């Protein structure tokens, strides 16, 4: 599949109802994300059986197809090209075919799918994730540059270059509210640039002259949460205006009101409220780790793999972004990253146990490098989840690693990450904390080793594969 993304794209599109059934094509680090006009037209079993497809997550009217890092980018590009080229010419015929298939399966099936996969909670999480997932590459790149800049400052290297490196690394985070506003408006059906314009109010230096609730506002107050709320309000105002403003005045009044009304509400309400929520998140995270760090780490590390399996882990990005904005790093990500360590340990145990299963051992060998770098889906969908019990023991390994890191947080040694996205070994360049870089890295490494070892031992002891068949005589 790596060598022929076009054929993989064709096979995927055939099994999701054809190009005309696809309304949007995106991807994250490991998953091809397709939004579908008719989810009932998907042949789930055939899609999961495709070579190279590691798993499929059904989420309302979308399908997340796990392909793995490196592969997903090429396949996504091929899918987008085929949807664009074939969708126009075949759209009407395929749409009719999809409609006939849906009718034959019955409205009850569609309603059942919608009820199970489009709950308000899951839909809200998915839409929030859609706002922040496109920002991950910039968060990773700027986070790594920030880490390098800190290393150069501490070591006294390249003093003439470090201010420039700091500016390049910090500029995106200083304006992240604008990008959040742009993506929020796009996701909720508004004009993206108007969402960005309203969200820009949050970071504009001039807000320091505005008094709200008896105090001057601070630029950036409310952070990404304020930007998210401001842009969402802007989309509601814009939609209201579109249906009521006369056509001749729409081009003038609608943008003006869309910026003015939410802008004033942001200044005199949302920034203050979002700032209070953001402060509460930071205070709660610090309190949680300082008082119940080991327990908190155990719970977070143990439950993260199921969130990844369901595709809900991206909804935590606003919390990470808020902590990074407040404290310079998120203390939650290193705890959650321990889930990947448990997964690696479990996969190694399966590899040892299944000496005669050459196919599965090949899958493990190919997926382990990604697993060590924190990309867990290939091991989840290719190894532990199909086998059942190793998935549970992998969660146990993640819980043990999280408890290890959380225990040191109780002692006052915080381990955080300056960016969102990488985990496993890939998180080392992004580590930060309130102690020396060496101690922070040592604690994180200790958590990884604990997760590897616990995941391996728990799986090795609990997993009893069927005996190999006796050779024919």
TrEMBL record:
Any single biological process term in GO: phosphoenolpyruvate-dependent sugar phosphotransferase system
Keyword 4Fe-4S applies: no
One Gene Ontology cellular component: plasma membrane
Coiled-coil intervals: none
Stored PROSITE patterns: PTS_EIIB_TYPE_1 (PS51098), PTS_EIIB_TYPE_1_CYS (PS01035), PTS_EIIC_TYPE_1 (PS51103)
Principal subcellular localization: membrane
CDD domains tied to this protein: PTS_IIB_glc
Topology term for the membrane: Multi-pass membrane protein
Top-rank taxon, per record: Bacteria
Cellular localization per UniProt: Cell membrane
Matches recorded under Pfam families: PTS_EIIB, PTS_EIIC
Keyword hit for Cell membrane: yes
PANTHER family hit by this protein: PHOSPHOTRANSFERASE SYSTEM TRANSPORT PROTEIN (PTHR30175), PTS SYSTEM N-ACETYLMURAMIC ACID-SPECIFIC EIIBC COMPONENT (PTHR30175:SF3)
Protein name: PTS transporter subunit EIIC
Organism: Streptomyces actinomycinicus
């Amino acid at each position: 599949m790596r060598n022929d993304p076009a054929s993989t794209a064709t096979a995927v599109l055939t099994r999701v109802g054809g190009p005309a059934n696809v309304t949007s094509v995106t991807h994250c680090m490991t998953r091809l994300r397709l939004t579908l006009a008719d989810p009932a037209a998907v042949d789930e079993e055939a899609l999961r059986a495709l070579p190279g497809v590691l798993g499929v997550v059904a989420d309302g009217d979308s399908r997340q197809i796990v392909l793995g890092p490196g592969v997903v980018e090429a396949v996504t590009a091929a899918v987008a090209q085929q949807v664009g080229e074939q969708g126009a010419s075949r759209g009407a015929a395929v749409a009719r075919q999809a409609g006939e298939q849906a009718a034959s399966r019955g409205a009850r099936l569609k309603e059942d799918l919608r009820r199970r996969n489009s709950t308000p909670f899951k839909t809200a999480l998915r839409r929030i994730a859609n706002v922040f997932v496109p920002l991950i590459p910039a968060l990773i790149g700027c986070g790594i540059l920030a880490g390098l800049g800190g290393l150069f400052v501490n070591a006294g290297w390249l003093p003439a270059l470090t201010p420039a490196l700091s500016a390049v690394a910090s500029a995106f985070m200083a304006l992240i509210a604008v990008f959040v506003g742009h993506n929020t408006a796009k996701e909720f059906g508004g004009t993206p640039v108007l969402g960005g314009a309203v969200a820009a109010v949050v970071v504009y230096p001039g807000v320091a002259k505005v008094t709200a609730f008896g105090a001057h506002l601070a630029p950036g107050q409310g952070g990404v949460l304020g930007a998210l709320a401001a842009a969402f309000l802007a989309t509601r105002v814009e939609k209201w205006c579109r249906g009521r403003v006369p056509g001749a005045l729409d081009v003038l009044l609608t943008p003006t009101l869309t910026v003015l009304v939410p802008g004033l509400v942001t200044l005199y309400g949302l920034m203050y409220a979002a700032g209070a929520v953001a402060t509460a998140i930071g205070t709660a995270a610090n309190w949680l780790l300082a008082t119940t760090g080991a327990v908190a780490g155990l719970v977070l590390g143990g439950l993260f793999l199921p969130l990844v399996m369901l595709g809900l882990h991206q909804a935590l990005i606003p919390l990470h972004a808020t902590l990074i904005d407040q404290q310079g790093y998120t203390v939650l990500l290193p705890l959650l990253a321990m889930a990947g360590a448990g997964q690696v340990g479990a996969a190694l145990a399966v590899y040892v146990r299944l000496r005669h299963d050459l196919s599965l051992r090949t899958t493990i060998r190919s997926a382990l490098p990604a697993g060590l770098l924190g990309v867990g889906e290939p091991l989840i969908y290719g190894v532990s989840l199909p086998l059942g019990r190793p998935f549970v023991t992998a969660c146990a390994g993640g819980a043990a690693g999280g408890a290890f890191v959380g225990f040191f947080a109780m002692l006052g040694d915080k381990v955080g990450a300056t960016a969102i996205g990488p985990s496993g070994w890939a998180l080392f360049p992004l580590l930060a904390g309130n102690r020396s870089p060496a101690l922070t890295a040592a604690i994180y490494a200790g958590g990884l080793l604990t997760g590897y070892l616990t995941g391996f031992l728990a799986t090795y002891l609990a997993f009893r594969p069927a005996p190999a068949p006796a050779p024919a005589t």
